[in-house]
Amino acid sequence: MSKQVGDPLALEHQHPYGLRKMTDKVHRALRLLIHALMFVGLFALPGCQKYDELVEKDQVALQKWSDLEADLQRRSELIPNLVATVKASANYEQSTLTKITEARASATSIKLTGDDFSNPEKMKAFEAAQAKLSSGAIGRLLVQNENYPKLQANGQFTDLMKQLEGTENRILRARQEYNEAVKAYNSELGKIRGSIVNKATGQPFKPRVYFSAAPESTAAPKVSF
Q1: Which long-range contacts (C-beta less than 8 Å, at least 24 apart) are formed by 142-148?
Q2: CA–CA separation, 64 vs 48, rounded Å?
Q3: Which parts of 90-225 fold into alpha helices (H)?
Q4: Which of 2, 25, 138, 161 sits 20 to 30 Å CA-CA off 128?
């Protein structure tokens, strides 16, 4: 019986070398594919870990910023009580109280979200508003209160001043902790693997801007009675 055309056995008998050669090529291709997948896997796992690390450090920076905002909010809530106490206790200079009220409104009107933390101009505007309130308006109030003995004798005023001083110290610490978190995040993002992972994932991570308040605002206002 003659072998049918297309029969594998017939082909093997007719072209044994060609069939083995084709089989070897298939095996080599499979081996290359397996090696390629293993190679990709070796880099994919560290890449996922680096992505997770960037997410974590970004969240830490965001949490530290939230802590700073909480302290700024606390200061903002103290100021109306302080102004009311001053008005009720002494014939205080109205211009100083007006400036405090205006500075507070300006400081609370600026909110930073999303890409704002990567925008130097918006960060600078935020810093300037906070410095105007902290070292400007409040600073003048603390200095001028010495000219009003009746005001200094007011227990409520004294308590508010102490709370305000404590708040300013917390704000300073919160700024420092935020900047430390930003340093850790930006450093990780700037490293080779962090940069590669960021580009490979569509650059969802952006460098954060440090909170660099004016030099005169880094010290809490001095309270003296």
Answers
A1: 142/221, 142/222, 142/223, 142/224, 144/92, 144/93, 144/96, 145/86, 146/224, 148/89, 148/90, 148/92
A2: 25
A3: 94-109, 120-131, 138-144, 149-152, 155-190, 192-200
A4: 161
- Look at residue 183 and tell me whether its pLDDT is greater than 90: yes
Q: Which one-letter amino acid corresponds to residue 14?
A: Q
CA quadruple 37, 42, 46, 49: dihedral, nearest 10: 50
Which residue carries 């508003």 as its tokens? Answer: 129
Identity (one letter) of the amino acid at 70? A
Contact 142/225 with Cβ under 8 angstroms?
Answer: no
User: Please, are residues 137 and 78 in contact by the beta-carbon 8 Å criterion?
Assistant: no
From residue 13, alpha-carbon distances to 6, 9, 10, 60, 207 in Å are 12, 6, 5, 70, 68
pLDDT for residue 34 is more than 80? no
Q: Do 189 and 207 touch, CB atoms closer than 8 A?
A: yes
Question: Among candidates 208, 212, 178, which has minimal Cα distance to 71?
Answer: 178
Which residue type is seen at 147?
N
Rounded Cα distance, 157 and 103, in Å: 20
Q: What is the mean pLDDT of residues 40-62?
A: 77
